[in-house]
Design brief:
Largest sheet: 6 strands, mixed
Strand order of the largest sheet: 7-4-6-5-9-8
CATH architecture of the largest domain: 3-Layer(aba) Sandwich
Radius of gyration: 30 Å
Pathway: Cofactor biosynthesis; molybdopterin biosynthesis
CATH superfamily of the largest domain: MoaB/Mog-like domain
Keywords: Magnesium, Metal-binding, Molybdenum, Molybdenum cofactor biosynthesis, Transferase
CATH topology of the largest domain: Molybdenum Cofactor Biosythetic Enzyme, Chain A
Family: Belongs to the MoeA family.
CATH class of the largest domain: Alpha Beta
Function: Catalyzes the insertion of molybdate into adenylated molybdopterin with the concomitant release of AMP.
Number of domains: 4
Shape: elongated
Enzyme class: transferase
Helix content: 10-25%
């Protein structure tokens, strides 16, 4: 067996971003940028008003002024003010040539085309200069940035209609086991177990930038598993196989891809839970990641291997998904034994509370678990008040 760090190094070295594609801005959310986004225009594109009011010359602030026009947001530049004149102006509208002050409407009295100042004005000129937000050519978003709601604002403001992005990894999930049935069916089928992990893996995959290309439940039959795996691999970049990865006499998942052009990257890792985890890759760059069948083991190994793999395939850095932090323990954790232990716990006032039930088959506790707590293999008990390496779960 190899260590978790060794397995991570192998997978990190094997993962490369998918092919970059040019897509419309409307479709770009959730992708990572394959190149920088530069502004095609200045923002604002001219001096504009920051308030509703009247654009005037500084020297005319105390005199009655003649209103000679109106400037709206979106109006083309071209208006001007001369001595003794003002232009009615609204927020975002271009400031007329010659004006260097916007008087807010709340301190103005107007009769016909004549306006007078009726209140005290501040030193604020209420004008946003051209290019004060950004200028043409400025880099607003850098290569590798994830396009979320705020980044979409910047990309649109830059004047871009399309963007170069990394493709989203396509993930397929194959859950194996004679006992598995779709959620909702098990109450009516004696001896069955709900497939509680596949939908969770799909949700995790989407959280890390992937799209779901397919999902199947397959009985413990080598021929059927091989057929299902081959079918799913035709439309995905990563096939996640759940179950059939240990040493039981009916564990067929890893052997089902033998001879299919896949090279094993690692098989078994000295960790708890998740020892049976394995990974393979073919010449086309497709990955097969085998996860244990127990729900907690599957979720822990998915968080530690699938999440960073998808991050890297989607154009991010592998280690962006493995940011460890130090947390103080609110209660002790027993010595982990010879294998590295990734315990489950929850955050309480920025401290870690490990769960008493650390069984790999536990499902109820998963809903409350929001951190993984890392104990090196062969280490001693981690006592209350000590710090421990933690990863958001």
């Amino acid at each position: 067996m190899i260590t978790f760090d060794e397995a991570s190094a192998i997978l990190r070295g094997a993962a490369r971003p998918l092919e970059a594609v040019e897509i419309s801005l409307a479709e770009a959310s959730g992708h990572r940028l394959a190149g920088d986004v530069a502004a095609r225009i200045d923002a604002p594109r001219s001096d504009v008003s920051a308030m509703d009011g009247y654009a005037v010359r500084n020297g005319d602030l105390h005199a009655p002024l003649s209103v000679v026009g109106t400037s709206y947001a979106g109006s083309p530049p071209g208006l001007s003010v001369e001595e003794g004149e003002a232009v009615r102006i609204f927020t975002g509208a271009p400031v007329p040539q010659g004006a260097d002050w916007v008087i807010v409407q709340e301190i103005v009295e107007r009769e016909g085309d004549i306006m007078r100042l009726t209140g005290e004005f501040s030193e604020a000129r209420h004008i946003r200069p051209r290019g004060s937000d950004f200028s043409e050519g400025d880099i607003l978003l850098e290569r590798g940035a994830m396009l979320g709601p705020r980044q979409m604002v910047a990309a649109a403001a830059a004047g871009q209609a399309s963007l170069s992005v990394w493709g989203k990894p396509r993930v397929a999930i194959l859950a194996t086991g004679d006992e598995l049935v779709a959620p909702g069916k098990s109450p009516d089928i004696e001896g069955s177990i709900p497939d509680s992990i596949s939908l969770a893996l799909a949700a995790l995959s989407r959280n890390y930038g992937a799209e779901i290309a397919g999902h199947e439940i397959c009985a413990d039959d080598p021929a059927k598993i091989a057929q299902a795996a081959g079918s799913l691999l035709s439309s995905c970049d990563v096939l996640v196989m759940v179950g059939g990865a240990s040493v039981g006499e009916r564990d067929f998942a890893s052997s089902s891809i033998a001879g299919g052009g896949f090279e094993t990257l690692f098989a078994k890792v000295a960790m708890r839970p998740g020892k049976p985890v394995w990974c393979a890759k073919d010449a086309k760059g497709r990955f097969v990641l085998g996860l244990p069948g127990n729900p907690t083991s599957a979720m822990v190994t998915a968080r530690l291997f699938l999440a960073p793999l998808l991050t890297a395939l989607a154009g991010g850095e592998y280690d962006d998904a493995l940011v460890w932090k130090e947390l103080e323990l609110l209660s002790s954790m027993p010595a982990p034994g010879p294998r590295e232990h990734f315990g489950r716990g929850r955050l309480v006032d920025r401290k870690a509370e490990p769960f008493a039930n650390q069984q790999s088959g536990a499902q109820a506790a998963l809903a409350a678990a929001d951190v993984l707590l890392r104990q090196p293999g062969g280490s001693v008990e981690a006592g209350k008040g000590e710090t421990i390496a933690a990863l958001d779960f």
